[in-house]
Amino acid sequence: MASNGNQGLGIDFQPGLQAGLVNNRGADMLHEIGIACSKCRTEDVYEGMSGDGKTRRSPNCGACVDGWLFRSPLVVRGLASSVRQQKNILDAGLAQPGDMTFSIGPGFSDCGAETRRVGRDDKFTATWSQPLNDGQTIVRGAATFHENFELATGISESEDRLWYEPESSIWCEDENGRVYVEGSDFLLGPGRVISWLADGPDVGTRYTIKYNAFFEWLCFQPPQERRDRDNRDLGPLIFLRRRHIAFINDNPVISPEDRVSITSRTSC
Ligand SMILES: [Zn+2]
């Protein structure tokens, strides 16, 4: 009987080297656990027979983001190994522009996060900002006029909802070519809102705002487990997609958490 002559590469992982690399060269992201919203996502096989009058999947559920709740924010450190700027194939399917692979080392932590496992549908928020593509077009006051006034959006009449928390404005211009300036015409934040001061666009006017955003990313594929000999955990490889691309029909609600700035959420 043949014996096993393969001794492996003969090179073993040095404890601390990988963790040191991640700690020294890594980037911080805010990790939140994604769970299904029990209010609007029915997965219990008996529910259809219970006759209790509860509705199934509600497109206007005010409790969640498109069927998900994000809980327990914690800072994790990993290597932002690539941000794809083109469509191409990767192990997890098709990469959309802006997708990122994020590599968390074992023992990743800033806030005692060693015990944290990352799963599909978890959310990450970058603690650094990037320009938002060609910006976001908004209809001034649309969240609160006509029938929308009856929606409980959590947005006041002087505010509009942003996809991401803004760090600063790059350019803001309405459909009539009028330009607006942060500080004198509008204020950004805290959280995912723009607040208009006295002389903003008329209600119903479209405008575009391009801003530096703290992008949020969804873990849209199950993380890839990576194990070495003796089941040693090398940390998961995580496939991330920007929130406004993953959730085409985003939730129209601004929740109290949406008004908390990233800087006050990243302290341990
Ligand atoms: Zn819901």
Describe the protein's architecture and organization:
8% of the residues lie in helices and 34% in strands. With 268 residues, it is mostly beta strands. The chain has 2 domains: 17-38 and 62-129 and 216-256, Thrombin, subunit H (Beta Barrel), CATH 2.40.10; 132-214, no CATH class. A 6-stranded antiparallel barrel has the order 1-2-5-17-14-6. The chain is globular and about 85 Å long. The model has no long low-confidence stretch (mean pLDDT 82). Bound molecules: zinc ion. The site of zinc ion (ZN) has 7 residues, from loops.
Quick description:
The protein is mainly β.
CATH architecture of the largest domain: Beta Barrel
Bound molecules: zinc ion
Overall residue-averaged pLDDT value: 82
Largest sheet: 6 strands, antiparallel, barrel
Structural class: mainly beta
What is the N-to-C order of secondary-structure elements (H for helix, E for strand)?
HEHEEEEEEEEEEEEEEEEHH
Distance between the amino and carboxyl termini = 58 Å
Helix proportion = under 10%
Uncertain segments? none
Number of helices: 4
Number of domains: 2
Gross geometry: globular
Provide the gyration radius in Å: 22 Å
CATH topology-level name of the largest domain: Thrombin, subunit H
Number of strands: 17
